Protein backbone atom coordinates (compact mmCIF):
# COMPACT_ATOMS: atom_id res chain seq x y z
CA UNK A 1 0.00 0.00 0.00
CA UNK A 2 1.88 3.04 -1.23
CA UNK A 3 0.46 5.79 0.85
CA UNK A 4 1.40 9.36 0.16
CA UNK A 5 2.03 10.99 3.48
CA UNK A 6 1.23 14.62 3.89
CA UNK A 7 4.15 16.97 3.38
CA UNK A 8 6.01 17.49 6.61
CA UNK A 9 7.50 20.96 6.98
CA UNK A 10 10.99 19.86 7.84
CA UNK A 11 12.82 21.93 5.25
CA UNK A 12 13.35 25.06 7.23
CA UNK A 13 14.45 28.47 5.98
CA UNK A 14 18.17 29.02 5.59
CA UNK A 15 20.24 29.75 8.65
CA UNK A 16 19.68 33.30 9.82
CA UNK A 17 21.73 35.33 12.15
CA UNK A 18 19.45 35.12 15.17
CA UNK A 19 16.37 32.89 15.19
CA UNK A 20 13.41 34.63 16.80
CA UNK A 21 11.08 32.88 19.22
CA UNK A 22 8.76 31.58 16.54
CA UNK A 23 11.59 30.11 14.54
CA UNK A 24 12.95 28.43 17.63
CA UNK A 25 9.56 26.80 18.14
CA UNK A 26 9.48 25.57 14.54
CA UNK A 27 12.94 24.16 14.83
CA UNK A 28 12.39 22.44 18.13
CA UNK A 29 12.29 18.69 18.33
CA UNK A 30 8.96 18.72 20.16
CA UNK A 31 7.29 20.72 17.43
CA UNK A 32 8.62 18.61 14.60
CA UNK A 33 7.71 15.40 16.43
CA UNK A 34 4.19 16.72 16.97
CA UNK A 35 3.80 17.59 13.29
CA UNK A 36 5.05 14.14 12.34
CA UNK A 37 2.48 12.45 14.60
CA UNK A 38 -0.35 14.55 13.20
CA UNK A 39 0.79 13.90 9.62
CA UNK A 40 0.84 10.15 10.29
CA UNK A 41 -2.67 10.24 11.74
CA UNK A 42 -3.84 12.26 8.75
CA UNK A 43 -2.28 9.73 6.37
CA UNK A 44 -3.90 6.77 8.14
CA UNK A 45 -7.29 8.49 8.12
CA UNK A 46 -6.96 9.25 4.41
CA UNK A 47 -5.84 5.71 3.60
CA UNK A 48 -8.79 4.22 5.49
CA UNK A 49 -11.26 6.45 3.69
CA UNK A 50 -10.04 5.49 0.24
CA UNK A 51 -9.66 1.84 1.20
CA UNK A 52 -13.30 1.72 2.29
CA UNK A 53 -14.51 3.49 -0.86
CA UNK A 54 -12.25 2.12 -3.55
CA UNK A 55 -11.48 -1.47 -2.60
CA UNK A 56 -12.70 -4.10 -5.07
CA UNK A 57 -15.03 -5.51 -2.45
CA UNK A 58 -16.15 -2.10 -1.28
CA UNK A 59 -17.95 -2.44 2.08
CA UNK A 60 -20.38 0.36 1.28
CA UNK A 61 -21.46 -1.38 -1.91
CA UNK A 62 -21.68 -4.73 -0.08
CA UNK A 63 -23.93 -3.13 2.51
CA UNK A 64 -26.19 -1.64 -0.17
CA UNK A 65 -26.54 -4.99 -1.94
CA UNK A 66 -27.25 -6.72 1.37
CA UNK A 67 -30.02 -4.30 2.21
CA UNK A 68 -31.59 -4.78 -1.20
CA UNK A 69 -31.42 -8.56 -0.89
CA UNK A 70 -32.59 -8.75 2.72
CA UNK A 71 -35.27 -6.09 2.99
CA UNK A 72 -36.18 -5.52 -0.66
CA UNK A 73 -35.21 -1.86 -0.45
CA UNK A 74 -34.75 0.22 -3.55
CA UNK A 75 -31.18 1.06 -4.47
CA UNK A 76 -31.65 4.71 -3.49
CA UNK A 77 -33.12 3.81 -0.08
CA UNK A 78 -30.31 1.41 0.67
CA UNK A 79 -27.80 4.02 -0.47
CA UNK A 80 -29.31 6.66 1.81
CA UNK A 81 -29.07 4.29 4.73
CA UNK A 82 -25.46 3.49 3.92
CA UNK A 83 -24.74 7.21 3.83
CA UNK A 84 -26.17 7.63 7.31
CA UNK A 85 -24.37 4.62 8.82
CA UNK A 86 -20.96 5.35 7.33
CA UNK A 87 -21.39 9.09 7.95
CA UNK A 88 -20.52 9.77 4.32
CA UNK A 89 -22.80 11.53 1.84
CA UNK A 90 -22.56 9.08 -1.05
CA UNK A 91 -24.25 11.40 -3.54
CA UNK A 92 -21.62 14.10 -3.21
CA UNK A 93 -18.49 14.09 -5.36
CA UNK A 94 -15.57 12.12 -3.92
CA UNK A 95 -13.55 15.18 -2.89
CA UNK A 96 -16.50 16.58 -0.97
CA UNK A 97 -17.19 13.18 0.63
CA UNK A 98 -13.61 13.11 1.78
CA UNK A 99 -13.77 16.60 3.31
CA UNK A 100 -17.03 15.76 5.06
CA UNK A 101 -15.56 12.53 6.37
CA UNK A 102 -12.64 14.49 7.84
CA UNK A 103 -15.06 17.03 9.32
CA UNK A 104 -17.18 14.28 10.90
CA UNK A 105 -14.09 12.64 12.35
CA UNK A 106 -13.00 15.92 13.94
CA UNK A 107 -16.39 16.17 15.56
CA UNK A 108 -16.02 12.59 16.80
CA UNK A 109 -18.67 11.21 14.47
CA UNK A 110 -17.47 7.81 13.26
CA UNK A 111 -20.82 6.63 11.96
CA UNK A 112 -23.06 3.91 13.37
CA UNK A 113 -22.86 0.18 13.66
CA UNK A 114 -25.02 -1.53 11.09
CA UNK A 115 -25.39 -4.81 12.91
CA UNK A 116 -26.81 -3.28 16.05
CA UNK A 117 -28.82 -0.38 14.74
CA UNK A 118 -28.62 2.92 16.55
CA UNK A 119 -25.29 2.20 18.23
CA UNK A 120 -22.71 4.89 17.56
CA UNK A 121 -19.15 3.75 16.87
CA UNK A 122 -17.87 6.58 19.06
CA UNK A 123 -19.90 5.21 21.99
CA UNK A 124 -18.46 1.72 21.54
CA UNK A 125 -14.99 3.21 21.60
CA UNK A 126 -15.73 5.38 24.64
CA UNK A 127 -16.96 2.32 26.49
CA UNK A 128 -14.25 -0.20 25.63
CA UNK A 129 -11.04 1.73 24.88
CA UNK A 130 -10.35 2.70 28.54
CA UNK A 131 -10.08 -0.98 29.52
CA UNK A 132 -7.46 -1.66 26.90
CA UNK A 133 -5.55 1.53 27.70
CA UNK A 134 -5.61 0.56 31.36
CA UNK A 135 -4.41 -3.04 30.94
CA UNK A 136 -1.81 -2.33 28.26
CA UNK A 137 -0.55 0.86 29.94
CA UNK A 138 -0.20 -0.74 33.37
CA UNK A 139 1.63 -3.75 31.99
CA UNK A 140 4.07 -1.66 29.93
CA UNK A 141 4.91 0.37 33.01
CA UNK A 142 5.43 -2.72 35.15
CA UNK A 143 7.47 -4.62 32.56
CA UNK A 144 9.63 -1.59 31.72
CA UNK A 145 10.50 -0.84 35.35
CA UNK A 146 11.02 -4.50 36.31
CA UNK A 147 13.00 -5.16 33.12
CA UNK A 148 15.34 -2.21 33.76
CA UNK A 149 15.97 -3.31 37.34
CA UNK A 150 16.51 -6.98 36.46
CA UNK A 151 18.66 -6.05 33.44
CA UNK A 152 20.94 -3.97 35.66
CA UNK A 153 21.11 -6.80 38.15
CA UNK A 154 22.17 -9.15 35.33
CA UNK A 155 24.87 -6.73 34.19
CA UNK A 156 26.26 -6.22 37.70
CA UNK A 157 26.24 -9.96 38.40
CA UNK A 158 27.56 -10.90 35.01
CA UNK A 159 28.35 -14.60 34.50
CA UNK A 160 26.94 -15.67 37.85
CA UNK A 161 24.11 -18.21 38.24
CA UNK A 162 21.62 -15.32 38.66
CA UNK A 163 22.64 -13.93 35.27
CA UNK A 164 22.35 -17.30 33.54
CA UNK A 165 18.98 -18.06 35.11
CA UNK A 166 17.58 -14.64 34.20
CA UNK A 167 19.00 -14.80 30.65
CA UNK A 168 17.41 -18.17 30.04
CA UNK A 169 14.12 -16.92 31.43
CA UNK A 170 14.31 -13.80 29.24
CA UNK A 171 14.94 -15.63 25.97
CA UNK A 172 12.30 -18.22 26.83
CA UNK A 173 9.47 -15.77 27.50
CA UNK A 174 10.36 -13.36 24.74
CA UNK A 175 10.42 -15.99 22.00
CA UNK A 176 7.09 -17.69 22.70
CA UNK A 177 4.10 -15.80 21.18
CA UNK A 178 2.01 -14.04 23.84
CA UNK A 179 -1.23 -15.77 22.87
CA UNK A 180 0.38 -19.20 23.36
CA UNK A 181 1.61 -18.19 26.82
CA UNK A 182 -1.93 -17.02 27.52
CA UNK A 183 -3.36 -20.39 26.43
CA UNK A 184 -0.80 -22.31 28.48
CA UNK A 185 -1.60 -20.25 31.60
CA UNK A 186 -5.30 -20.63 31.05
CA UNK A 187 -5.20 -24.39 30.50
CA UNK A 188 -2.68 -25.23 33.20
CA UNK A 189 -3.89 -22.91 35.97
CA UNK A 190 -7.55 -23.37 35.12
CA UNK A 191 -8.99 -26.79 34.32
CA UNK A 192 -5.79 -28.77 34.95
CA UNK A 193 -4.61 -27.56 38.35
CA UNK A 194 -7.80 -25.72 39.32
CA UNK A 195 -5.82 -22.90 40.91
CA UNK A 196 -7.89 -20.13 39.35
CA UNK A 197 -11.51 -19.94 38.36
CA UNK A 198 -11.38 -18.89 34.70
CA UNK A 199 -15.08 -18.27 34.27
CA UNK A 200 -15.32 -15.67 37.04
CA UNK A 201 -12.32 -13.75 35.69
CA UNK A 202 -13.87 -13.09 32.31
CA UNK A 203 -15.04 -9.64 31.29
CA UNK A 204 -13.56 -6.38 32.53
CA UNK A 205 -15.71 -6.10 35.67
CA UNK A 206 -18.08 -8.46 37.49
CA UNK A 207 -21.75 -7.97 36.81
CA UNK A 208 -23.39 -5.66 39.31
CA UNK A 209 -20.21 -3.87 40.39
CA UNK A 210 -20.73 -0.11 40.22
CA UNK A 211 -17.88 1.95 38.77
CA UNK A 212 -16.66 4.57 41.21
CA UNK A 213 -13.80 5.43 43.53
CA UNK A 214 -14.39 2.50 45.83
CA UNK A 215 -11.96 -0.17 46.95
CA UNK A 216 -14.42 -2.84 45.89
CA UNK A 217 -14.53 -1.54 42.31
CA UNK A 218 -10.76 -1.13 42.19
CA UNK A 219 -10.11 -4.69 43.38
CA UNK A 220 -12.67 -6.10 40.98
CA UNK A 221 -11.03 -4.28 38.05
CA UNK A 222 -7.63 -5.67 39.07
CA UNK A 223 -9.06 -9.17 39.46
CA UNK A 224 -10.33 -9.17 35.89
CA UNK A 225 -7.28 -7.47 34.38
CA UNK A 226 -4.75 -9.57 36.30
CA UNK A 227 -4.29 -12.36 33.75
CA UNK A 228 -4.02 -10.11 30.65
CA UNK A 229 -1.59 -7.81 32.47
CA UNK A 230 0.45 -10.78 33.68
CA UNK A 231 0.75 -12.10 30.11
CA UNK A 232 1.70 -8.70 28.65
CA UNK A 233 4.37 -8.26 31.33
CA UNK A 234 5.69 -11.79 30.91
CA UNK A 235 6.03 -11.51 27.13
CA UNK A 236 7.63 -8.05 27.04
CA UNK A 237 9.90 -8.17 30.09
CA UNK A 238 12.51 -10.42 28.45
CA UNK A 239 13.24 -7.82 25.78
CA UNK A 240 13.75 -5.06 28.38
CA UNK A 241 15.99 -7.27 30.51
CA UNK A 242 18.30 -8.23 27.66
CA UNK A 243 18.41 -4.70 26.24
CA UNK A 244 19.11 -3.18 29.66
CA UNK A 245 21.79 -5.75 30.38
CA UNK A 246 23.80 -4.97 27.25
CA UNK A 247 23.23 -1.25 27.65
CA UNK A 248 24.41 -1.34 31.26
CA UNK A 249 27.50 -3.34 30.36
CA UNK A 250 28.37 -0.75 27.72
CA UNK A 251 27.76 2.12 30.16
CA UNK A 252 29.91 0.56 32.88
CA UNK A 253 32.90 0.86 30.54
CA UNK A 254 32.40 4.59 29.99
CA UNK A 255 34.98 7.00 31.30
CA UNK A 256 32.59 8.98 33.44
CA UNK A 257 31.76 5.87 35.46
CA UNK A 258 35.46 5.25 36.08
CA UNK A 259 35.88 8.89 37.06
CA UNK A 260 32.90 8.69 39.38
CA UNK A 261 34.44 5.66 41.04
CA UNK A 262 37.78 7.40 41.32
CA UNK A 263 36.07 10.35 42.98
CA UNK A 264 34.93 7.89 45.62
CA UNK A 265 31.22 8.33 45.05
CA UNK A 266 28.97 5.82 46.75
CA UNK A 267 28.11 2.73 44.72
CA UNK A 268 24.39 3.34 45.10
CA UNK A 269 24.74 6.85 43.71
CA UNK A 270 26.80 5.62 40.74
CA UNK A 271 24.33 2.83 40.09
CA UNK A 272 21.29 5.06 39.96
CA UNK A 273 22.28 8.48 38.68
CA UNK A 274 25.25 7.55 36.50
CA UNK A 275 24.75 4.03 35.17
CA UNK A 276 21.01 3.45 35.50
CA UNK A 277 19.93 6.72 33.99
CA UNK A 278 22.26 6.62 31.01
CA UNK A 279 21.87 2.93 30.32
CA UNK A 280 18.08 3.12 30.26
CA UNK A 281 18.01 5.98 27.73
CA UNK A 282 18.34 3.84 24.59
CA UNK A 283 15.41 1.74 25.81
CA UNK A 284 12.99 4.58 25.27
CA UNK A 285 13.15 4.25 21.50
CA UNK A 286 12.22 0.61 21.97
CA UNK A 287 9.38 1.63 24.23
CA UNK A 288 7.73 3.33 21.27
CA UNK A 289 7.91 0.21 19.13
CA UNK A 290 6.78 -2.05 21.93
CA UNK A 291 3.69 0.07 22.63
CA UNK A 292 2.49 -0.67 19.11
CA UNK A 293 3.20 -4.35 19.50
CA UNK A 294 1.46 -4.77 22.85
CA UNK A 295 -1.50 -2.72 21.71
CA UNK A 296 -1.80 -4.78 18.53
CA UNK A 297 -1.31 -8.02 20.43
CA UNK A 298 -4.09 -7.03 22.82
CA UNK A 299 -6.55 -8.18 20.15
CA UNK A 300 -5.45 -11.78 20.70
CA UNK A 301 -5.00 -11.62 24.47
CA UNK A 302 -8.41 -10.04 24.96
CA UNK A 303 -9.96 -12.76 22.81
CA UNK A 304 -8.36 -15.50 24.91
CA UNK A 305 -9.23 -14.05 28.32
CA UNK A 306 -12.57 -12.66 27.12
CA UNK A 307 -11.45 -9.27 28.44
CA UNK A 308 -13.87 -6.59 27.29
CA UNK A 309 -11.46 -4.16 25.70
CA UNK A 310 -11.31 -2.53 22.29
CA UNK A 311 -9.49 -5.49 20.71
CA UNK A 312 -12.33 -7.81 21.59
CA UNK A 313 -14.77 -5.35 19.98
CA UNK A 314 -12.63 -5.24 16.84
CA UNK A 315 -12.83 -9.02 16.51
CA UNK A 316 -16.57 -8.92 17.07
CA UNK A 317 -16.95 -6.31 14.33
CA UNK A 318 -14.71 -8.30 11.98
CA UNK A 319 -16.67 -11.50 12.51
CA UNK A 320 -19.93 -9.68 11.83
CA UNK A 321 -18.42 -7.71 8.95
CA UNK A 322 -19.60 -4.55 10.68
CA UNK A 323 -17.51 -2.19 8.56
CA UNK A 324 -18.19 1.17 10.20
CA UNK A 325 -17.29 -0.28 13.60
CA UNK A 326 -14.23 -2.06 12.16
CA UNK A 327 -13.03 1.12 10.51
CA UNK A 328 -13.62 3.25 13.61
CA UNK A 329 -11.89 0.87 15.99
CA UNK A 330 -8.95 0.37 13.66
CA UNK A 331 -8.51 4.14 13.42
CA UNK A 332 -8.69 4.56 17.19
CA UNK A 333 -6.20 1.77 17.87
CA UNK A 334 -3.81 3.32 15.36
CA UNK A 335 -4.25 6.83 16.72
CA UNK A 336 -3.71 5.56 20.28
CA UNK A 337 -0.49 3.88 19.23
CA UNK A 338 0.73 7.01 17.40
CA UNK A 339 -0.06 9.21 20.40
CA UNK A 340 1.64 6.74 22.74
CA UNK A 341 4.71 6.75 20.47
CA UNK A 342 4.68 10.53 20.58
CA UNK A 343 4.59 10.53 24.38
CA UNK A 344 7.41 7.97 24.53
CA UNK A 345 9.53 10.10 22.20
CA UNK A 346 8.81 13.33 24.08
CA UNK A 347 9.66 11.60 27.34
CA UNK A 348 12.91 10.51 25.75
CA UNK A 349 13.67 14.04 24.64
CA UNK A 350 13.12 15.28 28.21
CA UNK A 351 15.63 12.73 29.47
CA UNK A 352 18.25 13.00 26.75
CA UNK A 353 19.84 16.47 26.69
CA UNK A 354 21.20 15.92 23.18
CA UNK A 355 17.69 16.09 21.79
CA UNK A 356 16.75 19.03 23.98
CA UNK A 357 19.46 21.09 22.29
CA UNK A 358 17.40 20.84 19.14
CA UNK A 359 19.78 18.80 17.07
CA UNK A 360 17.01 16.56 15.94
CA UNK A 361 17.03 12.82 16.17
CA UNK A 362 20.28 11.34 17.30
CA UNK A 363 20.76 7.99 15.74
CA UNK B 1 36.93 -34.87 -5.62
CA UNK B 2 38.58 -31.66 -4.47
CA UNK B 3 35.19 -29.99 -4.89
CA UNK B 4 33.54 -32.53 -2.61
CA UNK B 5 36.36 -32.17 -0.15
CA UNK B 6 35.84 -28.44 -0.21
CA UNK B 7 32.18 -28.86 0.64
CA UNK B 8 32.97 -31.36 3.38
CA UNK B 9 35.50 -28.95 4.82
CA UNK B 10 33.02 -26.07 4.71
CA UNK B 11 30.30 -28.16 6.37
CA UNK B 12 32.73 -29.29 9.01
CA UNK B 13 33.87 -25.73 9.72
CA UNK B 14 30.33 -24.40 9.87
CA UNK B 15 29.17 -27.16 12.20
CA UNK B 16 32.09 -26.43 14.46
CA UNK B 17 31.17 -22.77 14.57
CA UNK B 18 27.55 -23.64 15.30
CA UNK B 19 28.61 -25.96 18.10
CA UNK B 20 30.72 -23.20 19.69
CA UNK B 21 27.70 -21.59 21.26
CA UNK B 22 25.76 -24.04 23.43
CA UNK B 23 22.44 -22.22 23.24
CA UNK B 24 22.84 -21.71 19.50
CA UNK B 25 23.65 -25.36 18.99
CA UNK B 26 20.53 -26.34 20.90
CA UNK B 27 18.52 -24.08 18.59
CA UNK B 28 20.18 -25.64 15.54
CA UNK B 29 19.30 -29.15 16.72
CA UNK B 30 15.75 -27.96 17.40
CA UNK B 31 15.43 -26.57 13.87
CA UNK B 32 16.79 -29.79 12.34
CA UNK B 33 14.27 -31.72 14.41
CA UNK B 34 11.35 -29.61 13.22
CA UNK B 35 12.44 -29.76 9.58
CA UNK B 36 12.67 -33.53 9.88
CA UNK B 37 9.30 -33.69 11.65
CA UNK B 38 7.52 -31.52 9.09
CA UNK B 39 9.09 -32.68 5.83
CA UNK B 40 10.25 -36.28 6.37
CA UNK B 41 7.95 -37.73 9.01
CA UNK B 42 4.74 -37.16 6.99
CA UNK B 43 6.05 -39.79 4.55
CA UNK B 44 5.80 -42.38 7.31
CA UNK B 45 2.89 -41.10 9.39
CA UNK B 46 -0.31 -40.63 7.37
CA UNK B 47 -2.65 -37.78 8.35
CA UNK B 48 -5.42 -39.28 10.48
CA UNK B 49 -8.75 -38.05 9.17
CA UNK B 50 -11.13 -40.66 10.52
CA UNK B 51 -13.27 -39.69 13.46
CA UNK B 52 -13.82 -42.41 16.04
CA UNK B 53 -16.64 -41.64 18.45
CA UNK B 54 -15.49 -44.32 20.86
CA UNK B 55 -12.00 -42.87 21.18
CA UNK B 56 -12.53 -39.20 22.03
CA UNK B 57 -9.79 -37.65 24.19
CA UNK B 58 -8.00 -40.91 24.83
CA UNK B 59 -4.82 -40.67 26.90
CA UNK B 60 -1.47 -41.53 25.26
CA UNK B 61 -1.07 -45.21 24.44
CA UNK B 62 1.15 -47.39 22.28
CA UNK B 63 -1.25 -46.90 19.39
CA UNK B 64 -1.62 -43.13 19.78
CA UNK B 65 1.51 -41.81 21.43
CA UNK B 66 0.02 -38.36 22.09
CA UNK B 67 -3.55 -39.59 22.58
CA UNK B 68 -6.56 -38.60 20.50
CA UNK B 69 -8.42 -35.35 19.88
CA UNK B 70 -12.07 -34.25 20.20
CA UNK B 71 -13.13 -36.52 17.37
CA UNK B 72 -10.84 -39.43 18.13
CA UNK B 73 -8.09 -38.58 15.64
CA UNK B 74 -4.45 -39.32 16.39
CA UNK B 75 -2.89 -36.11 17.79
CA UNK B 76 0.64 -37.17 16.84
CA UNK B 77 -0.31 -37.31 13.16
CA UNK B 78 -1.81 -33.81 13.42
CA UNK B 79 1.41 -32.50 14.93
CA UNK B 80 3.53 -34.19 12.26
CA UNK B 81 1.48 -32.77 9.40
CA UNK B 82 0.96 -29.37 11.01
CA UNK B 83 4.49 -28.06 10.65
CA UNK B 84 5.02 -27.81 6.90
CA UNK B 85 2.91 -24.74 6.14
CA UNK B 86 4.07 -22.97 9.29
CA UNK B 87 7.73 -23.41 8.36
CA UNK B 88 7.28 -22.61 4.65
CA UNK B 89 5.27 -19.43 5.34
CA UNK B 90 7.74 -18.33 8.01
CA UNK B 91 10.68 -18.79 5.66
CA UNK B 92 9.04 -17.13 2.65
CA UNK B 93 7.85 -14.17 4.71
CA UNK B 94 11.22 -13.79 6.36
CA UNK B 95 13.04 -13.94 3.02
CA UNK B 96 10.76 -11.45 1.26
CA UNK B 97 10.68 -8.91 4.07
CA UNK B 98 14.44 -9.15 4.61
CA UNK B 99 14.97 -8.60 0.89
CA UNK B 100 12.75 -5.51 0.92
CA UNK B 101 14.51 -4.23 4.04
CA UNK B 102 18.00 -4.76 2.65
CA UNK B 103 17.18 -3.02 -0.63
CA UNK B 104 15.34 -0.08 0.96
CA UNK B 105 17.65 0.28 3.96
CA UNK B 106 20.88 0.27 1.97
CA UNK B 107 19.46 2.51 -0.77
CA UNK B 108 18.35 4.95 1.88
CA UNK B 109 21.72 4.98 3.62
CA UNK B 110 23.87 5.11 0.49
CA UNK B 111 21.94 7.66 -1.56
CA UNK B 112 20.95 9.94 1.32
CA UNK B 113 19.20 13.24 0.64
CA UNK B 114 15.66 13.25 -0.70
CA UNK B 115 15.58 9.47 -1.32
CA UNK B 116 16.63 8.84 2.25
CA UNK B 117 14.02 11.13 3.74
CA UNK B 118 11.29 9.71 1.46
CA UNK B 119 12.09 6.12 2.46
CA UNK B 120 12.41 7.06 6.12
CA UNK B 121 9.08 8.91 6.10
CA UNK B 122 7.39 5.83 4.65
CA UNK B 123 9.16 3.63 7.20
CA UNK B 124 8.07 5.79 10.12
CA UNK B 125 4.55 5.71 8.79
CA UNK B 126 4.53 1.91 8.60
CA UNK B 127 6.13 1.60 12.03
CA UNK B 128 3.35 3.63 13.60
CA UNK B 129 0.61 1.29 12.41
CA UNK B 130 -0.19 -1.67 14.65
CA UNK B 131 0.31 -4.59 12.28
CA UNK B 132 -1.88 -7.23 13.80
CA UNK B 133 -5.18 -5.29 13.82
CA UNK B 134 -4.44 -4.20 10.25
CA UNK B 135 -3.89 -7.85 9.26
CA UNK B 136 -7.14 -8.83 10.92
CA UNK B 137 -9.03 -6.11 9.04
CA UNK B 138 -7.31 -7.00 5.75
CA UNK B 139 -8.29 -10.64 6.19
CA UNK B 140 -11.91 -9.61 5.69
CA UNK B 141 -11.04 -8.09 2.30
CA UNK B 142 -8.52 -10.55 0.90
CA UNK B 143 -8.73 -14.32 1.00
CA UNK B 144 -5.44 -15.20 2.64
CA UNK B 145 -5.46 -18.96 2.17
CA UNK B 146 -2.67 -19.15 -0.39
CA UNK B 147 0.79 -19.75 1.06
CA UNK B 148 2.50 -17.31 -1.32
CA UNK B 149 -0.11 -14.57 -1.01
CA UNK B 150 -0.13 -14.81 2.77
CA UNK B 151 3.68 -14.66 2.90
CA UNK B 152 3.73 -11.66 0.59
CA UNK B 153 1.18 -9.75 2.67
CA UNK B 154 2.90 -10.62 5.95
CA UNK B 155 6.18 -9.45 4.42
CA UNK B 156 4.69 -6.20 3.14
CA UNK B 157 3.55 -5.44 6.67
CA UNK B 158 6.80 -6.24 8.43
CA UNK B 159 9.68 -4.67 6.54
CA UNK B 160 9.76 -1.35 8.39
CA UNK B 161 11.64 -2.26 11.58
CA UNK B 162 14.22 -4.19 9.57
CA UNK B 163 14.69 -1.34 7.11
CA UNK B 164 15.51 1.10 9.90
CA UNK B 165 17.96 -1.33 11.45
CA UNK B 166 19.69 -2.09 8.16
CA UNK B 167 19.91 1.59 7.26
CA UNK B 168 21.72 2.43 10.48
CA UNK B 169 23.97 -0.59 10.01
CA UNK B 170 24.95 0.55 6.51
CA UNK B 171 25.43 4.12 7.73
CA UNK B 172 27.90 2.95 10.32
CA UNK B 173 29.67 0.51 7.97
CA UNK B 174 30.25 3.11 5.26
CA UNK B 175 32.23 5.20 7.74
CA UNK B 176 34.66 2.37 8.38
CA UNK B 177 38.25 2.66 7.24
CA UNK B 178 38.23 -0.18 4.74
CA UNK B 179 35.25 1.31 2.92
CA UNK B 180 36.95 4.69 2.86
CA UNK B 181 40.04 2.98 1.53
CA UNK B 182 38.10 1.22 -1.23
CA UNK B 183 36.49 4.50 -2.15
CA UNK B 184 39.76 6.39 -2.34
CA UNK B 185 41.16 3.58 -4.50
CA UNK B 186 38.42 4.49 -6.97
CA UNK B 187 36.42 1.26 -6.64
CA UNK B 188 32.96 1.34 -8.21
CA UNK B 189 29.87 1.77 -6.06
CA UNK B 190 28.79 -1.74 -6.96
CA UNK B 191 32.08 -3.16 -5.77
CA UNK B 192 31.81 -1.23 -2.53
CA UNK B 193 28.27 -2.40 -1.88
CA UNK B 194 28.65 -6.06 -2.83
CA UNK B 195 32.25 -6.71 -1.84
CA UNK B 196 32.85 -4.40 1.09
CA UNK B 197 29.58 -3.60 2.80
CA UNK B 198 27.20 -6.53 2.26
CA UNK B 199 29.60 -9.30 3.37
CA UNK B 200 30.09 -7.47 6.64
CA UNK B 201 26.37 -7.26 7.15
CA UNK B 202 25.69 -10.95 6.60
CA UNK B 203 25.38 -11.78 10.30
CA UNK B 204 22.99 -8.91 10.74
CA UNK B 205 20.92 -9.92 7.72
CA UNK B 206 20.80 -13.59 8.73
CA UNK B 207 19.68 -12.69 12.23
CA UNK B 208 17.08 -10.27 10.86
CA UNK B 209 15.78 -13.07 8.65
CA UNK B 210 15.33 -15.35 11.63
CA UNK B 211 13.52 -12.68 13.63
CA UNK B 212 11.28 -11.92 10.65
CA UNK B 213 10.46 -15.64 10.61
CA UNK B 214 9.39 -15.60 14.25
CA UNK B 215 7.17 -12.58 13.55
CA UNK B 216 5.57 -14.45 10.65
CA UNK B 217 4.85 -17.49 12.82
CA UNK B 218 3.27 -15.15 15.36
CA UNK B 219 1.06 -13.41 12.81
CA UNK B 220 -0.15 -16.46 10.92
CA UNK B 221 -0.85 -18.32 14.16
CA UNK B 222 -2.81 -15.37 15.50
CA UNK B 223 -4.88 -15.03 12.34
CA UNK B 224 -5.75 -18.71 12.34
CA UNK B 225 -6.59 -18.60 16.03
CA UNK B 226 -9.10 -15.81 15.44
CA UNK B 227 -10.61 -17.82 12.60
CA UNK B 228 -9.58 -15.25 9.99
CA UNK B 229 -7.53 -17.61 7.84
CA UNK B 230 -9.59 -20.17 6.00
CA UNK B 231 -8.23 -23.68 6.18
CA UNK B 232 -10.22 -25.94 3.90
CA UNK B 233 -7.67 -28.70 3.47
CA UNK B 234 -4.51 -27.31 4.95
CA UNK B 235 -3.63 -28.50 8.38
CA UNK B 236 -1.33 -26.55 10.61
CA UNK B 237 -0.45 -26.41 14.28
CA UNK B 238 -2.46 -23.24 14.65
CA UNK B 239 -5.50 -24.90 13.06
CA UNK B 240 -5.30 -27.73 15.58
CA UNK B 241 -5.12 -25.17 18.40
CA UNK B 242 -8.03 -23.19 16.99
CA UNK B 243 -10.25 -26.26 16.59
CA UNK B 244 -9.39 -27.53 20.05
CA UNK B 245 -10.15 -24.07 21.43
CA UNK B 246 -13.53 -23.70 19.75
CA UNK B 247 -14.49 -27.25 20.81
CA UNK B 248 -13.92 -26.18 24.41
CA UNK B 249 -10.79 -28.27 24.90
CA UNK B 250 -9.63 -25.91 27.63
CA UNK B 251 -12.48 -26.92 29.88
CA UNK B 252 -11.76 -30.64 30.07
CA UNK B 253 -8.94 -32.31 31.91
CA UNK B 254 -8.55 -35.03 29.27
CA UNK B 255 -8.17 -32.66 26.35
CA UNK B 256 -4.87 -31.32 27.67
CA UNK B 257 -2.72 -32.84 24.92
CA UNK B 258 -5.11 -31.89 22.13
CA UNK B 259 -4.42 -28.21 22.73
CA UNK B 260 -0.98 -28.44 24.36
CA UNK B 261 0.80 -30.58 21.73
CA UNK B 262 0.51 -27.98 18.93
CA UNK B 263 1.05 -25.08 21.38
CA UNK B 264 4.31 -26.64 22.52
CA UNK B 265 5.31 -27.41 18.92
CA UNK B 266 4.99 -23.73 17.94
CA UNK B 267 6.62 -22.53 21.16
CA UNK B 268 9.62 -24.85 20.72
CA UNK B 269 9.96 -23.95 17.04
CA UNK B 270 10.04 -20.24 17.93
CA UNK B 271 12.51 -20.88 20.73
CA UNK B 272 14.78 -22.88 18.40
CA UNK B 273 14.76 -20.02 15.89
CA UNK B 274 15.67 -17.44 18.53
CA UNK B 275 18.38 -19.60 20.08
CA UNK B 276 19.85 -20.34 16.65
CA UNK B 277 20.61 -16.62 16.16
CA UNK B 278 23.35 -16.98 18.80
CA UNK B 279 25.16 -19.43 16.51
CA UNK B 280 24.59 -17.19 13.50
CA UNK B 281 26.51 -14.47 15.32
CA UNK B 282 29.41 -16.87 15.74
CA UNK B 283 29.38 -17.96 12.12
CA UNK B 284 29.33 -14.54 10.56
CA UNK B 285 31.15 -12.40 13.05
CA UNK B 286 34.83 -13.34 13.10
CA UNK B 287 35.59 -10.89 15.89
CA UNK B 288 33.47 -12.91 18.31
CA UNK B 289 35.52 -16.02 17.57
CA UNK B 290 38.77 -14.62 18.88
CA UNK B 291 39.58 -15.97 22.30
CA UNK B 292 36.27 -17.66 22.99
From TrEMBL, chain B:
In terms of superkingdom, the source organism counts as Bacteria
Pfam (any one) = BPD_transp_1
User: Which residue range or ranges hold the ABC transmembrane type-1 domain?
Assistant: 87-277
Sequence intervals crossing the membrane: 23-45, 86-113, 125-142, 148-166, 204-229, 256-277
Task: Fetch the CDD domains from UniProt.
Answer: TM_PBP2
Q: Which PROSITE patterns match?
A: ABC_TM1
Q: Which UniProt keywords apply?
A: Cell membrane, Membrane, Transmembrane, Transmembrane helix, Transport
Q: Does the keyword Transmembrane apply?
A: yes
Q: Which region is the signal sequence?
A: none
Membrane topology (UniProt): Multi-pass membrane protein
Cellular component GO terms, alphabetical: plasma membrane
Subcellular locations according to the entry: Cell membrane
Which biological processes are named by the entry's GO terms? transmembrane transport
**Family under the similarity heading:** Belongs to the binding-protein-dependent transport system permease family.
Name listed for the protein in its UniProt record: ABC transporter permease
